[in-house]
Amino acid sequence: RTEQITRVGEAFLAREGDERPFFLWLHYVNPHTPYDPPDELLDRFRDDGIVPRGPELEPVVGYHGGVNRHEFIHGARWGDYVDRYDAEILLADSHVGRVLEALASSVHPGTTLVVFTSDHGESLGEHDYFFDHGHDLFNPSLRIPLIVSFPGFLPSAERVAAAVSTLDIYPTILDLAQVNFPPGLEGRSVLPLVRGTDTRLHDQLFFQNDRHLTAISNGRLKLVHYPALQFPERCELYDMYRDPAEEADRYREAGTRLAPLVAELGSFHTRTVAWQQATSARRNPAVEDTELPASTRDSLIELGYVEEPDPREEITPSALRCP
Asked: Any residues with CB less than 8 A from the CB of 81 and at least 6 apart, and which?
């Protein structure tokens, strides 16, 4: 699949005599479980002495306390799985390189904006969560790369420390393309950060996962709300300056000082529920979902994109509470 995606990109960029503006989106799934890189790439990481081998991991149902039983390799240690993950990163990197080489050989290299990012990170055992993503809102799943290149319009090798969101990618592209923003846009262009006219884009960043956890971060503190759907309802607070690994929950000791963050997170929760309800209402009730072919459904289940509906997880407009 990775090879097919790259070939589509190479073929698109190799079109001769077509100098029209274009938009090309390539979505690679690697690196992603199951970690199954080519042996020649994996050999570059085995026994390199950089990643410790660590303990042997047990097969488990789910992803906590060990390796998912479907990904388990008998006799493998923690470092062996990390090597496989690193080799998959190298595989993806080589394919991105091929696309960039095709761009350099096309008629578009000096006039093309390139954006490189990811939709999530991966937990490699932090918080006893092994080789997966989406279950929690800790930084291993939230922190991702964002690289923007536009020759002649953006400085080279400029590194910006301020936190931004994937919601900011769309308005940044519109800004560089000099296209007016549509109304109601959630994100903001990052260009003021790049140009040095601003040092902070957001006072807070909000997060949500598909288990309905929500969180707010002001750059130092992160407040996480666990809803009463799959968990006992609770809130956790992490000081990411003093505790970058997010291991010490400081919610109880913070007291009333957290009231502004709790109120902001509650407002985000209310807006999110309203948006989800409005989105559901816009769906045409007369159009039924078609049955997916078994092979397609199996692939989507393996990637975590399809689950059997659970009525206990229906979102209700209940108020957010931090007990």
From this structure: 35, 57, 67, 71, 73, 124, 130, 131
Residue with tokens 């990775």: 2
Token pair, residue 92, equals: 């993806």
Q: How far is CA 282 from CA 230, 275, 285, 286, in A?
A: 27, 11, 9, 11
Question: b/e map of 51-87 (b: 16 or more CB within 10 Å)?
Answer: beeeeebeeeeebeebbbeebeeeebbbbbbbbbbbb
Considering just the CA atoms, what is the radius of gyration of the chain in Å?
22
Q: Give the integer Cα–Cα distance in Å for 218 and 206.
A: 9
275: exposed, middle or buried (C-beta count within 10 Å: 0-12, 13-18, 19+)?
Answer: exposed
| Residue 219: closest CA among 202, 243, 196 | 202
Q: How far apart are CA 40 and CA 303, in angstroms?
A: 25
In the structure, what pLDDT confidence band is assigned to residue 278 with cuts at 50, 70 and 90?
confident
CB 229 within 8 A of CB 312: yes
Backbone angles phi, psi at 222, to 5 degrees: -125, 120
Cα-to-chain-centroid distance, residue 33: 15
The angle, 0 to 180 degrees and rounded to 10, between the axes of the packed helices 2-13 and 78-104 is 10
Q: Give this prediction's pTM.
A: 0.85
Tokens of 258: 């957290």
| Confidence label for 312 from pLDDT (cuts 50, 70 and 90) | very low
- Map 108-125 to HEC letters: CHHHCCEEEECCCCCEEC
